[in-house]
Specification:
Length: 784
């Protein structure tokens, strides 16, 4: 059987790294003085392992809510004699000045800091520690690193190491002492979103060997200084930089450029217009270009070949056939061409192997891939277009689409717009149409990022999208690996303050599905989270509104499921005024059959708990249960469940029946009448996981009517659904208990006759296990 897309297993290196990070004290560390985490003395780790540990640690911090960050984690890598770091990628506000200072003795080759807004100018001093070895440096979005924190001087001492660490860096005067002087090996530099009051030219001038420079969203006083690297510069990114003839003229002098990005966000109001002439001269002069991005520009004059003059045939990447006039000057097709948010992406012949745009699925996916890390505003738009493709058309590159959306959601966990569009896209990319093509691992990745979004945002749209996406999964099976977490998030959504009906309805449905068909220890754990109380609060609110809707019915159904063979949860139901709400619902909604079925199913679970039955043995409750014996609601289900409740109560014997009215024998007579009125071939809206509560009513003479109800229940189930229930009855020893029913003198003749039929049904099934009934795979409801 071929592996499904996205099912490649993690490498042993990855698995071992994650295990060590989750178990630092059991593997490579010990608890030192003042609970400080320390590396064991006999540990010596090479750079390949250290880099993996640090970068995976950052990923776990941002994407796994169950992962506990370590206060002194970076101190583990303070000594280069035992740990070697060379390539480190850190992001978001989690990273602090003291984290960088902890690794200042390392000979870093690559240091990528992205959106690290907690860093202050103290970290610039730390950067200077790496000047002799650093080859690649990214400071994208580190808006506060060029400012002193709270006006403090740049210099710091060991004693001040932890000072003000928990306070975000406040912008005071910009740091003027820092210089890139001495960074002689630095080749790749990203200063994207450099603050406006930090002058790029003076900051960069000391650098001599830069080959790749990213100045996205940087305000330039002039661009002439770029020519100092005219012989070396191979990559230049000027995204959202205010272009002018002077800037373009400078770019034209950089004859060795292989990658040039002059793109902009289309909503920006700028004076500069990209013309056919400018684009032509760029292509003519920059002969080594393999990658060009002009996304977001509006072409003032006609840049494209008229449709009737276009080369005939299939879309071609040959420059001579290009539908874009200036690109006919290319000597060879470009490896990459950014045309996102331009009309040029819609032409037929584009001389590039990879194109960003909005014409088709491939262009949209290319845009998400190219812009996710540093341009979330563009990635957001592209994901929105992917959403439309998945919703209206068909996504042909499913694996790639899912992986890109997952990556975007992980990368921008704190960007609301990405979370909204990404979660909406995931809903359509995981629905039934695409499900067969998705691996277990890929679907687990989806679940993880969906739960991350639910945790981070209480906003209605994100919550609704995430809940709807979870509905595309097999519940509880596919969510079991995150069982506790998903239940906690759903219960939080269902807090009384939440008023959005659509989210409430979806969340209750999910809660109900999650507690159906799971082990008792799962149900007990969820009960301790406040599940029972939350459902009863929802029911109370609906009663106050005099509304019986899906939320009301799902809430009772969820309580039915979570109390199945779980005495603690049954006790919680009684303690939280559950019986009062049951009576109020019966009175307020006398004709709601589904509601009555769910409530009686729940009370059947309560009645199975011997220690709780005395709380049901009151004149009021017994009268209600007796009257419901005659109910025709939902076929026989309400009457059947009411009789089940009474059967367990009768099983405790006449000595516990202390009330005068209704009389015990009168209630038993009504039970007999009800059972005899049922059609034994009735198809059922119920699902038993175990017969144990029924089987305990068989070998006894205290309440023959209880014995008869149990025998009828078994006969109905094994005759209508033999392949499902005959094996269950045999496995749980039901046949031997039925034999005892035949031996008891107190057993009624009709009970014995039905017991024989049950035994015959099981014997026939053993002889012919392929026996089936038409339609037997019915859509069972839940017993619990």
């Amino acid at each position: 059987m071929a592996a499904k897309a996205g099912d490649d297993p993690d490498s042993l290196m990855t698995l071992a790294t994650v295990f060590c990070l989750r178990n630092l004290r059991k593997t490579m560390c010990y608890q030192g003085f003042r609970n400080k985490l320390c590396m064991r003395a006999d540990i010596f780790l090479p750079s390949e392992i250290c880099d993996k540990l640090v970068n995976t640690y950052m990923e776990l911090v941002h994407t796994d809510s169950n992962f506990e960050p370590e206060e002194s984690f970076f101190q583990l890598f303070s000594d280069p004699r035992s740990t070697r770091l060379t390539r480190v990628q850190l992001r978001e506000d989690f990273v602090r000045d003291r984290d960088l200072e902890a690794i200042r003795k390392q000979d870093l080759i690559e240091l990528h800091l992205t959106y690290c807004n907690s860093l202050s100018s103290r970290s610039l001093k730390t950067l200077s520690s790496f000047r002799e070895t650093l080859v690649s440096l990214c400071l994208f979005g580190c808006s506060n690193i060029f400012y002193r924190k709270g006006g403090a001087p740049l210099a710091c001492t060991e004693d001040s190491e932890d000072e003000d660490e928990d306070v975000p860096a406040a912008r005071q005067a910009p740091e003027t002492d820092f210089s890139f002087r001495g960074f002689d090996r630095l080749r790749l530099l990203n200063l994207g979103q450099l603050p406006d009051d930090v002058e790029a030219e003076s900051l960069l001038r000391p650098l001599r060997s830069v080959t790749a420079l990213d100045l996205s969203n940087v305000r330039l006083q002039g661009a002439a200084f770029l020519t100092q690297w005219r012989e070396r510069l191979a990559s230049l990114v000027l995204y959202n930089v205010d272009l002018s003839e002077e800037v373009v003229g400078t770019v034209l002098e950089l004859g060795n450029l292989r990658h040039l990005d002059l793109s902009r966000e289309s909503r920006r109001n700028v004076k500069f217009k990209m013309t056919r002439k400018i684009l032509t001269v760029l292509v003519q002069r920059l002969l080594h270009l393999v990658s060009l991005d002009i996304s977001g520009h509006i072409m003032l004059d006609n840049c494209t070949v008229p449709h009737f003059e276009e080369a005939v045939g299939r879309p071609s990447t040959e420059p001579c056939k290009s539908s874009i006039y200036p690109l006919q000057e290319l000597k060879r097709p470009l490896q990459f061409l950014g045309l996102y948010d331009t009309t040029l992406c819609n032409v037929t012949h584009i001389p590039a192997y990879k194109v960003t745009g909005s014409k088709n699925e491939d262009q949209v996916l290319n845009a998400i891939e190219a812009y996710t890390e540093f341009r979330p505003e563009l990635a957001h738009k592209a994901i929105n277009q992917l959403f439309d493709i998945a919703r209206i058309q068909h996504c042909s590159q499913l694996l790639r689409a899912l992986q890109l959306v997952i990556a975007a959601l992980k990368c921008h966990k704190y960007d609301k717009s990405i979370q909204v569009t990404g979660s909406a896209a995931l809903f359509y990319l995981t629905n039934t149409e695409y499900r067969s093509d998705q691996s277990v691992r890929l679907r687990r990745d989806v679940i993880q990022v969906v739960l991350n979004g639910m945790e981070q945002y209480q906003e209605v749209t994100v919550q609704r999208n995430c809940c709807l996406t979870l509905c595309n999964f097999s519940i509880p099976e596919e969510l079991e690996f995150q069982y506790s977490r998903v239940n906690q998030l759903l219960l939080k959504i269902l807090e009384p303050a939440r008023q959005d009906e659509s989210i409430q309805r979806i969340a209750v449905h999910l809660c109900n599905a999650l507690v159906c068909q799971v082990d008792n220890h799962h149900k007990e754990a969820v009960g301790k989270m406040g599940f029972v109380k939350t459902m009863l609060n929802l029911i109370q609110k609906k009663l106050q509104d005099r509304t019986c809707d899906q939320v009301m019915e799902f809430s009772w159904s969820a309580l039915w499921n979570i109390t199945d063979e779980t005495p603690d949860n049954c006790q919680m139901f009684l303690n939280c005024r559950g019986m009062s709400l049951f009576l109020e619902c019966l009175e307020e909604f006398p004709d709601k059959q589904e509601l009555h079925r769910n409530m009686l199913g729940l009370l059947g679970n309560v009645a199975e708990v011997k220690s709780l039955r005395p709380q049901l043995l009151t004149p009021q409750f017994i009268t209600v249960f007796s009257n419901l014996l005659e109910s025709k609601a939902d076929g026989i289900e309400v009457s059947y469940n009411a009789c089940g409740v009474l059967s367990h109560i009768m099983f405790d014997g006449p000595q516990v029946w202390s009330m005068e009215e209704p009389r015990r024998d009168a209630v038993m007579d009504r039970m007999w009448d009800a059972i005899q009125s049922w059609d034994v071939s009735s198809r059922r809206n119920i699902n038993y996981r175990s017969f144990e509560p029924i089987l305990r009513l068989l070998p006894q003479s205290i309440a023959p009517v209880s014995q008869h109800w149990a025998t009828w229940a078994l006969y109905n189930l094994v005759s209508v659904y033999p392949s499902k229930y005959c094996p269950l009855l045999i496995k749980e020893g039901g046949v031997s208990l039925l034999e005892k029913v035949l031996e008891l003198e107190s057993s009624q003749p009709e009970t014995k006759e039905m017991a024989r039929k049950v035994m015959e049904q099981c014997e026939n099934f053993k002889e012919d296990p392929m026996e089936t009934n038409n339609g037997q795979e019915a859509n069972y409801g839940q017993r619990g």
